[in-house]
Each structure stands twice: as structure tokens, then as C-alpha cells.
Amino acid sequence: MQMLDAGKKRLAAHGWRSGDAADFLCLSSEEAAFVEMKLALAGYVRELRTTRGLTQSEVAARLGSSQSRVAKMEAADPSVSVDLLVRSLLGLGASPADVARAISAAA
Amino acid sequence: MQMLDAGKKRLAAHGWRSGDAADFLCLSSEEAAFVEMKLALAGYVRELRTTRGLTQSEVAARLGSSQSRVAKMEAADPSVSVDLLVRSLLGLGASPADVARAISAAA
DNA sequence: GACACTTATGTCGGATGTGACATATTATCG
DNA sequence: CGATAATATGTCACATCCGACATAAGTGTC
């Protein structure tokens, strides 16, 4: 599996040692792609939040969630689903097209 | 909320009466957008499967799931998450970029 | 009609995700 | 250095999702 540089950097930035993340973690290419998507969406959550000068607590209140979960979203914690990430992005005002763009950026 | 024609048709095709689905079902625009995304992904699952001339059972076997769940995926049943839809699409060979395209198409 | 195949629908036990809370860690500013 | 705000991490009860199974409904073919 050939991973793009952007992907490697993002994985590394999250403390996941990687030459090739898929090899190292024994991820199939599908699993790796899934993780990539989650990281892209997680980053977009943080981007939308910081761009608007909001704290995690403020975002949590708006989403009906908690600060800790927002932190986990932005960290792409294994305990957060793509479902939650997408719902949160829409709740922050992103459109489906915006979400699609964020995913494409990960490619 | 102003829903695009493609969206109306898709909702109607699923038996959801709609002038404006958001109004009728009392969905917020975010909820409506979320449903739209699910429908787009569900349709893409079916498209990938039929294009390859596979039955739901065959796809289920490949994904390590069951025929009934595949049927529910394609029907965008409330019990299936975006998570599962995305994982399934990746399992069927779609790339994150492909997934993004499917979502954009819903917009 | 009867039969085989495919897809749809209903249900359920076990797995996973979620919000909430407590608590740590990390700034930032006197 | 405290003190305060923001973010990160750990845990848990409760909710939701998932695969599995049964079964209904649709689609051909004979």
C-alpha cells in the first residue's frame, strides 16, 4: 500500500509511528483509508471550531455533547465514529459538500 | 430549508412524502443534510454492487456481514450508520475520493 | 401453480459509541 | 510561583448499532 505524504504526516502527528502506517499497524488498505478519512474529518472539526474562535466547551454545548467528547473528536479517538464527526460538522454549519471536500483532501 | 430536486426525488423514492422533507418531518437543516448524505452513500453501495453483478448475500460475505444488513444499508435504514456505509464502500473497493464524490452528488 | 433465487422486514443478544463526570495536562497571565 | 482557562485522558452507565436468524415479499423460469 502506498500512502500519500499528507497521510503519513497526519498519522505521525498523532503519535502513530509510521513508515507506512498500514504496514506498521497491519492495517488493510481499506482500514487505512478509513482512518485517513476520520483524521481528515477530525481536523476539519478543529478547523471550523478554531476559525470561529470557539472553545471545545462552547462547541459541545451547541452540539449537545461534552467538552471531553469534542476533544476526542478532534483527536480522532478510536471511540468516535465517522457518524459523530459528520453530524458534528453539519452542526457546525458545514454542508455535505464541505464534508466531501474535507474527505477528498485526505484522499 | 430549500431542498434540491435530486434530494426530493430520492426521499420520495424511499416513501418519505415530501414537499420539503425537512418541514414535513420536522427535520432541522442539519438533520436533513445528514439524511441526504446517508441516502447518497446508500445509493452508491447499491450502484457498486449491481455494477459488479453481485447479490446482497455475496457482498455481505465479502464484508463479513449479512444479507439483511446489506439490504438495510441500501435502503438507508435508520439502523445503519454512516460509519457502516463508508466502511462498506471502502470494502467494495471505493476510495475515499469516490466516497467524497458520492456525498457531493447529494449536496 | 410450484420452485429457486433475490431482496425486504422484524427481532434480538452482544458489541460499540455516547454523554457525563472526574481528573490530568497544558498554556497564559499576573 | 499560584490562579485561571483551555484542552486532554480515563472511566462508566446507558443508548445505539451490528450481525445473525427467521420470515415475508418480489421475480423469474419451468
Description:
With 107 residues, the first copy, chain A, is an all-alpha fold. Chain A has a domain of 74 residues: 434 Repressor (Amino-terminal Domain). The first copy, chain A, is 68% helix and 0% strand. Chain A has seven helices and no strands. In chain A, helix 3 runs parallel beside helix 6 and helix 3 crosses helix 7. The N terminus of chain A is likely disordered.
Features:
107 residues; mainly alpha; 434 Repressor (Amino-terminal Domain); 7 helices
Give the arrangement of secondary structure elements:
Two copies of one chain form a homodimer.
Chain A: H1 5-13, H2 21-24, H3 29-51, H4 56-63, H5 67-74, H6 82-91, H7 96-106
Helix pairs in contact in A: 3-6, 3-7, 4-5
Chain A binds a DNA duplex (30 and 30 nucleotides) through helix 4 and helix 5.
**Helical/strand content category of chain A:** mainly alpha
Strand content of chain A: under 5%
Distance between the termini of chain A: 13 Å
Number of strands of chain A: 0
Largest sheet of chain A: none
Unreliable stretches of chain A, pLDDT < 50, 5 or more residues? 1-21
CATH architecture of the domain at 33-106 in chain A: Orthogonal Bundle
The number of helical runs of chain A is 7
| Overall geometry of chain A | globular
The CATH superfamily label of the domain at 33-106 in chain A reads lambda repressor-like DNA-binding domains
Rg of chain A = 14 Å
The residue-averaged pLDDT of chain A reads: 83
Helix and strand element order of chain A: HHHHHHH
The oligomeric state of the chains shown is: homodimer
CATH structural class of the domain at 33-106 in chain A: Mainly Alpha
In the CATH hierarchy, the third-tier topology of the domain at 33-106 in chain A is known as 434 Repressor (Amino-terminal Domain)
Helix content of chain A: 55-70%
Largest interface: A-B, 23 and 23 residues
